[in-house]
Amino acid sequence: MTIPVQAVRGGFGAHLREAEMSANRHAGVLHARSHQHFRIHIAHSAVHRCMAHQLVQRMFSWRGYQPGSALPAMENHCGTLVICAPDTVMGTLSISADRPGQLLSVEKTFGEEVRALREAGHRLCEFTRLAVEAVAHPKELLGSLFHGAYRFAERVHGAGTVLVEVNPRHVRFYERLLGFKVLSDVRLNERVQAPAVLLALDLAWGLREMERLGGQPDAATRERSFYPYFLSAAQEVKVLHGAWDAA
Fold it and tell me: Are the beta carbons of 184 and 197 closer than 8 angstroms?
């Protein structure tokens, strides 16, 4: 994959369990459950951009992926979200908008599918470079980060369809728990010599699920959904307030 959306080699559930065990092994572990202790915003400063890049490098390399050595440029069509506690970047996710004359990362492997979506009138964006630090409650942290990415895609890019490129092992999570649809067969991504699948989310549907279930982690098993780990309306105000004023 050009940039796998998850820095995971063994599957999403395994990643969460490993993160929990890793967090519990270390003293001074970061705790993600309290939304009073972190904020999500665009990485405008050089410090936050560098910290996000280092987190991606560390987590992707640990899992055997090739994140690329260059620090991503600050461009109008791309925003890098960071989830921050004091002096710490706990997670990061980049959102790129579809712009004339610029290729999305997923087009390098799935060009025909992306062109078909454009021709059908879809307003596209893609999620890339997802990495999350080992914390005590990684589901809440990851849900909050996805929440911020959904809002950014909606309000800043005006997107209607979100694209992700993932390893086949991760398709089940995106499809069953987040509502993404599979758009391709398995392809070989030549850049990293790894299999990849293209998925798409109807963002309007995702936003409705986010607003219906966000902030209710106890409902996750009953609903068979990851959306309960997103933010509630009240938490969104606290965590995302002013998140991309300068975007």
Answer: yes
Tokens of 20: 């929990």
What confidence tens digit (pLDDT) does each residue in 136-191 have? 568 888 999 999 999 999 999 999 999 999 989 999 999 999 999 999 999 998 77
Low-confidence ranges of the chain (pLDDT < 70): 1-36, 44-77, 86, 89, 134-137, 192, 241-247
Domain total for the chain?
A: 1
Instruction: Report the candidate in 208, 152, 219, 153 with the shortest Cα–Cα distance to residue 179.
Output: 208
C-alpha to C-alpha distance for 48 and 88, rounded to whole angstroms: 9
Q: Is 1 a member of any domain? A: no
Q: Can you list the alpha helix ranges (DSSP code H) found in the chain?
A: 12-25, 46-63, 107-119, 138-155, 171-172, 178, 203-213, 220-223, 233-240
pLDDT of residue 244: 57
| CA–CA dist 125, 173 (Å, integer) | 20
What b/e sequence results for 197-229 when a residue is b if at least 16 CB atoms lie within 10 Å of its CB, and e otherwise? Answer: bbbbbebeebbebbbebbbbbeebeeeebbbbb
Residue 191 sits in a domain of what CATH number?
3.40.630.30
Cα separation, 23 vs 175, whole angstroms: 28
Q: Which amino acid appears at position 120 of this protein?
A: A
The three-state DSSP-derived secondary structure of 19-36 is HHHHHHHCCCCCCCCCHH
Flag whether 62 is in a domain: yes
Task: Determine the Cα–Cα distance for residues 130 and 61; give it in Å rounded to an integer.
Answer: 13
- Confidence (pLDDT) at 64: 55
The pLDDT value recorded for residue 71 is: 43
